[in-house]
Fold this sequence. Notes:
There is one protein chain. By secondary structure, this protein is α/β, with parallel strands linked by helices. It folds into 3 domains: about 10-125, Nucleotidyltransferase, domain 5, CATH 3.30.420; about 135-180, no CATH class; about 190-250, no CATH class. The chain has helices at about 55-60, 65, 75-85, 95-110, 125-130, 135-145, 155-170, 180-190, 220-225, 225-235, 240-250; strands at about 10-15, 25-35, 40-45, 90, 120, 200-205, 205-210. Helix content is about 45%, strand content about 15%. Helix 6 (about 135-145) crosses helix 7, helix 9 (about 220-225) packs across helix 10 and helix 10 (about 225-235) runs antiparallel to helix 11 (about 240-250).
Amino acid sequence: MITLRKPIVFFDLETTGVAPDRDRIVDLAFLRRGPDGQEEVFSSLVDPGMPIPPEATAVHHITNEMVRGQPTFAALAPKLLDFIGDADLAGFGILRFDIPMLTAEFQRAGITFTTASRQLVDALTIFHRMEPRNLTAAYKLYCGKALEDAHRAEADMRASSEVFFAQLERYPELPKDVAGLSAFCVEQRDSAAVDSQGKLVWRNGKAAFNFGKHRTLTLEEVARKEPGYIEWLMNAERTTPELARICSEALMGKFPVKPAGVK
């Protein structure tokens, strides 16, 4: 077991989206563990002061009705800051998401919150470093063999084939035809993505950026406020013809319409 010289706080946030400058917390939970092994919990639903997008509710199942009448983050902030104290921070995916979101919420509440003097432990980073998700690891897991000559095209091609058929044997619940497997593989992306690469996603019924400096802004907002960015993206070397067409139409004031039945 790990030796703690000071308290460590594990925490998780559920939010209206992924952009700290635009989105808000709707649910929070903090567990403070001291060097003596004693644990305390601080948790609450949070009124974000804005509608929760259906896309977010589909992920965490928290509705507008559930947060109505709950405290705002600003109301919780002083008590939460006191609960955290000088503790180090830990969680799953906190470096990229939870810490930036938490810091932004404290800032909006007029409270300075810094991680400068804290140790930060992210179980997601540990997971990725200790359990690689690549072809070599998959070949070892599914086929029980070491991948020889990795990153040569033929070796990787043959390994991919072996992994695929081994997966079919291991997971009998998988579809038994190519069309079904294709639907299984693209199911999540199709439900949220506007284009095949997922560069644009549906947000509140409108196409929104899912990458870069305009992440979560709608295509329409960016096209009106910064058309030069849309033009640059349209002509970028790695932009697909599909996305280039969407950008071209956006510059003419025509924007994607969310198909009926798409969640």
